[in-house]
Design brief:
With 129 residues, the chain is mostly beta strands. 5% of the residues lie in helices and 49% in strands.
């Protein structure tokens, strides 16, 4: 059982930056597809980015490509989402998710919520104009 805890959310003005962190209880010894999703009020949860822990392969939604960077610190069992040039439309609850599996799984099914078995509780990001 993997437990995930997000941190780093907050309020920032448009154009600002935040770094979200997702601390995992453990993912050493296994390969995981780790992902970030977000959900704005009244909208469906959407995929933001994913990373495959074994190869460090990264994937991004078009809406954040070039502005967000996903990374990991394996010794700390922590995944990060560095968010730059934030826009009001980035306002949402951000969730991290994890699923053990192959690189192929991560590549093909990274954007599907049903891919991920483990979820954190979320951290709020609010971007003001």
């Amino acid at each position: 059982q993997v437990q995930l805890v997000e941190s780093g959310g907050g309020s920032v003005q448009a154009g600002g930056s935040l770094r979200l962190a997702c601390a995992a209880s453990e993912y050493t010894g296994s390969s995981y597809c780790m992902g970030w999703f977000r959900q704005a009020p009244g909208k469906e949860r959407e995929w933001v980015a994913s990373i495959y822990t074994s190869t460090n392969s990264t994937y991004y939604a078009d809406s954040v490509k070039g502005r967000f960077t996903i990374s990991q610190d394996n010794p700390k069992n922590t995944m990060y989402l560095h968010m730059n040039s934030l826009k009001p439309e980035d306002t949402a609850m951000y969730y991290c998710a994890a699923q053990p599996g192959s690189g192929g799984l991560c590549y093909l099914q990274r954007a599907d919520q049903k891919t991920y078995a483990y979820w954190g509780q979320g951290t709020q990001v609010t971007v003001s104009p």
